[in-house]
Design brief:
Length: about 160
Amino acid sequence: MKTITSCLAILALAVFTSAAFAQDPAPTPAPGPAPIAAPDGPTLTSVQVKFDTTTDNKNPDSLLDVYIKTNHGHEIAKSEGNRGVWDNNSTHTLNLEVEGVKTREQVRDGSVALTFHPHGADKWNFNYKVTLKFSDDSTIIKEFNDCQLTQHDASRTDAL
């Protein structure tokens, strides 16, 4: 009997100290978000578009939207709802809102899209210059001349 009791005690000790009854170790913390890789090359810091109205003004209630896009059509920078009279032979400069972190390479083959929202009949003749500035103090500058937007031809897209 003493042998049976000893065997039962050893068996109980073995069962209760086995892995099946052991407490789980502290859970391993989930890995955090992957570190964000630094952009490869200089990044876009600002975009400025200067409009020179020529022979026909932009009426005060006509709106202008300006978008800078990648070659895949994704917005890089924008300025929407620009209103006010832009008289003949006047200059107006817009500072666009840069969206996200974009490298020079992502911008290089992009485009400028202008959308005109005239109130009634409006014809606007102008030249414009786009200046993109990057984190290494370099720039891309493009100029476009003899442009026109009207209620019948209210948008244009030009390559950077």
